[in-house]
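Good morning C.,

I know you're traveling, so I'll keep this short. The sequence:
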Amino acid sequence: MKGTFALLDIAGYVALLLWGTHMVTSGVLRGYGSALRRWMGRYLAHRPAALGFGICITAILQSSTATGLMATSFAASGFLGLAPGLAVMLGANVGTTLIVQVMSFDISIVAPVLILIGFTIHRRTDDVRYENIGRVSIGLGLMLLALHLLVGAMAPVENAQVLRAILQSLASEPVLAMLVAALLTWACHSSVAVVLLIVSLATAGVVDAPGALALVLGANLGSTIPALMEAHTPVARRLPMGNLMVRAFGCVVCLPLLPMIAHWLAPLGDTPARIAVNFHTAFNLALALIFILPLESLARLLVRLLPEPPKPNDPGVPQYLDEGALDSANVALANAVRESMRMADMVEGMLKGIVEVFGKDDRARATAISRMDSSLDHLGLAIREYLADLGGVALNEEDGERSQEILAFVINIEHIGDITANNLMEFAAKKAANGQDFSAEDIEDLAAMHTQVMESLRLALTVFLRGDLRAAQQLMARKESLRKLENDASERHIKALRERRDGGGGADVYLRILRDLKRVHSHLAALAYLPLERAGLLQDRLVREPVTT
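The tokens, ready to paste straight into the viewer:
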């Protein structure tokens, strides 16, 4: 029974170690995920910078798996090039070894201090950023505490002959030991936790140095699997597949040389635990130095092995809403933005054809515009459901605001599509059926108003993507010019009708067209309210008129 209780203790302490790792990772991502996303977009064009970023961010997150999932999603969405993404992964692999190096020393004395500090910060502040700092501190403390408890729990294992025989038999079969450690790492989603567990086993004398090195190889190999399993498209699989190929190459080279490597590393520390830790660092550092130069060639090979599939014929099918990214809010928001821009492209295509539809009675173009609205609605629904799923994750204030911005953008774009496909195309059909013709002045006014709307659409996209306050102010200022343009065109048109006294049937259609174009612009201008209000630039006298649909 003592052996059974010892195994239960070990399992519980490993779970505590995993939970501490999860708290550190989630705390950093929730508190500073948006800042990390901006850094990845701005500074990772070059391989050395990407390598350094991978090392630093993994040391902060305490998880190369989290870094891998983040980099994979950005690479799949086009925000990060494949070669820089591979450099990030090389750096992440090195960064995770630094964590193990620090944790391998007996610094358990600071565990209670970290937990106490983290608890105090988390309970005493309402600021989400500081709450997540407290979460990170508690997570680090739990990790150190779990490691300290693991070392103590390993003592009975030394005397458990059956378990000791099993582990020693694994040590004598390095390939089997590597595969077992790889499966364990995949199940835990944490190479740090597994390597530290291996160090604890080596410290307790359960495995010798070559056996520990085989297990370390397995932990390195297994850490590449979660990101590969979470990728659902060939493009998304390129980065984790490249990382797997790099690690597999290292395992194949090192596996037959483990006794020699253990002998070479002995001068740096002759205990099995210290040899395992130093090997973990040397293994990943050597792979980073070997592969940092031929990354472009590796990227081209991955593109050939995993070509981009043909895009679906239905534009309403989402292309970037990766379900595996929902655990990382900043990555999921970037995916939602990418998909939202597809909606904007569809609406832009719908609006571009309006003048030709009314000027030339182009029925084929009108039919195509009407059909596009169904795809737009399907895509908008998919984005809203994706953001709703993301709502289950605790978002920091910045990510929460960005989620609301995306949702508002999607809803307004959908309304613009409805106005264009339903109202405007219905008027086009009536005009063609009744044989009504607009005058040259009517077409000219319609084209001028349409030009204003298209320019406002581009400003709205600038506001949405960059939060550009100047573009937001310009967008709001256009409301008055659109109102004046509609009034002038309406007065001229009505005056001309009075002079002709033609019954007013054409006037009704024409005036409704102008009204709906102004409604389209109102939906675009609505996108400027949130950034202006956040910056305190909305005038008190500004009345927020509800947008009618």
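Safe travels,
E.
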